[in-house]
Amino acid sequence: MTERSKKTDPDWQLQHYASVGKDYGNKHFTQADSEFTSWILEQIAAVNRAANTLAEVGAGTCVFASLLGKQLEVDQKVTCYEPVAALLEAASKYENVDATCGGALEFAAHATSNHFDLIYTKDTAHHFAKEALDEIHDGICDKLVSGGRYAMVVRTPPNHDSVPVGKIASKKWPSLYTSLNDLLQSMRRVSGWQEIEFTRWEKYVSTSAVEWLDGIKRRDTWSVFSALTPEETEGTVVELQEQFDGDEWFPFLHQYDVAIFEKA
Ligand SMILES: C[S@@+](CC[C@H](N)C(=O)[O-])C[C@H]1O[C@@H](n2cnc3c(N)ncnc32)[C@H](O)[C@@H]1O
Predict the structure, then answer these.
(1) CA–CA distance from 105 to each of 83, 118, 132, 259 (Å)?
(2) pLDDT in tens, 112-155
(3) Probe ligand 1: pick from 41, 124, 131, 150, max atoms within 8 Å of CB?
(4) Quick one: which of 56, 58, 75, 120 has the fewest CB in 10 Å?
């Protein structure tokens, strides 16, 4: 194993995304035309409305990057780094995206220095290996222009009262992913930028209970469900069916912890 690969995230996480592949863009909360997408794009766009050079690290199918580029009316392609080749197959349909197959460490090592007005990660930073955080954050800071901003947008770990992932997934979450605390501590160690804001973004979106449960059963939405055994999945579905109590729709709480840093 090379020094670099030792620092990347566990295989099962990348395998989860590889197995969903280019269809990931049709899954829950990745559809281009949805209330959630409009809301999250507006939140990210507001981080730097004057941005003309954009990059997303861990861009998945690149759908959000493409839409954000259009929303901010940038005249350059949006730079996307994504380590899972199967997801990037979907990116070929977005003409305003320049996609590279590589993770955050590759972005830190190879993207252009002093170039971006806005770099963001959405639903991705929790996958960064703890050992790699300082290298990743030093690299991201290096890629920003002076006055450029990095927005880390990461889901708040679900608990029983918020997003219905069930007790088992909720309990496993902290052992599966890099914590917000580790991410923040690493970002705060970088001397070239300063913290502008640490906040929480929240929005309820009415969501189909059947679709949410189907995604859990198929393990093709959130990676946490790929970490459950078949028995745990079954138990989770039974638990959530009881919780929904026959409701067809439920208010899904999209809850993000967000840290914004600006380069000096
Ligand atoms: C939940 S998906 C989010 C994808 C995209 N940002 C979106 O919102 O649709 C998490 C993404 O992080 C990527 N990822 C995992 N480890 C990564 C790493 N070390 N560097 C960059 N991306 C990574 C996965 O391949 C996956 O595409």
Answers:
(1) 10, 18, 7, 19
(2) 999 999 999 999 999 999 999 999 999 999 999 999 999 999 99
(3) 124
(4) 75
